[in-house]
TrEMBL record:
E.C. designation(s): 3.1.2.2
Family: Belongs to the THEM4/THEM5 thioesterase family.
Source organism: Streptomyces olindensis
Enzyme type, top EC level: hydrolase
GO molecular function, one term: hydrolase activity
Chain ranges of the Thioesterase domain: 123-193
Keyword Cytoplasm tagged: yes
CDD domains, sorted: PaaI_thioesterase
Protein's recorded name: Acyl-coenzyme A thioesterase THEM4
Length: 224
């Protein structure tokens, strides 16, 4: 029997958004497991070639309808809601740890564990990953405070290396505003020792004016 390799066109309304999100989340989990397993494996070249052939066939099943660059998918909560494909918090992203976020009275706390796929120095997190984690948490802290903005400056300080395979806590907190500028701080610690800063950052975020936001995000729904 012939099995089609490409996805048939989606029927409008055929699946609920919740079904779609659940499926995206499940695939994201499997892809993250594949990525982490790939960077740890000591499999032979034969095995790696066989797996590469299999992955190519799997990829071919997802090349049906694809979104355009600036299109915001229906499952995406931008702005303000959960981002399914964010490389930091996206349940559907193989790049994301992913970070889960808890609001507090004093900003946001993110929780995640980095794996070998996020390695910088052997056994420790990549400095760019730390910047990405803090940029996201600090950006989301702006949104949670009612002043969404985009990063214009992020001053990073690396105090100690970030251990891999260790639960981490990422804080983002708005410290002040000046017209469209939002001043934000952030830290990364381990969950086990939240008083020892491993990485800290100061950032300035700016709320684009509505015309600028419409030009930057043409896919933004009008009510947002
Ligand atoms: C909207 C919500 C989006 C949430 C997404 C969260 C994602 C996570 C965070 C990110 O990854 S954001 C991606 C990385 N950041 C960017 O790509 C931003 C690139 N920068 C821009 O597109 C524009 O700079 C921006 C739209 C943010 C602002 O442009 P505007 O034309 O609205 O700003 P304008 O030039 O009018 O400046 C407004 C004020 O900001 C100040 N400013 C601009 N750049 C600055 C800078 N680098 N540092 C400090 N202040 C700065 C500027 O001096 C001015 O101050 P005053 O009001 O006091 O005169």
């Amino acid at each position: 029997m012939h099995t089609p390799l490409t996805e048939p066109p989606a029927e409008a309304g055929a699946d609920s958004l919740e079904d779609q999100k659940a499926a995206i989340t499940r695939l994201g989990h499997e892809l993250r497991t594949l990525v982490e397993t790939t960077v740890r494996t000591a499999a032979s070249p034969d095995t790696l070639h066989r797996v590469a052939d299999g992955v190519r066939q799997v990829t071919a099943q997802l090349t049906g309808r694809r979104r355009a660059r600036a299109e915001i998918p229906e499952v995406d909560g931008f702005p303000g809601g959960p981002r399914m494909y964010s490389p930091v918090v996206g349940a559907g992203s193989p790049l994301a740890p992913p970070v889960s976020i808890t609001p507090t009275d004093d900003g946001l706390i993110g929780h995640c564990t980095l794996g070998l796929a996020h390695e910088g120095p052997p056994g420790y997190g990549h400095g760019g990953m730390s910047a990405m984690l803090l940029d996201e948490l600090m950006g989301q802290a702006c949104t949670a405070a009612g002043t969404p903005g985009m990063t214009v400056s992020l001053q990073m300080r690396y105090h100690q290396p970030i251990p891999l395979e260790t639960p981490l806590r990422i804080l983002g907190r708005v410290t002040g505003t000046d017209n469209r500028k939002v001043f934000v701080t952030g830290t990364i610690t381990t969950e086990a020792d939240p008083s020892t800063r491993l990485v800290s950052a100061d950032g300035v975020f700016i709320a684009p004016d509505p015309d600028r936001a419409r030009a930057l995000f043409p896919g933004l729904r009008e009510e947002a």
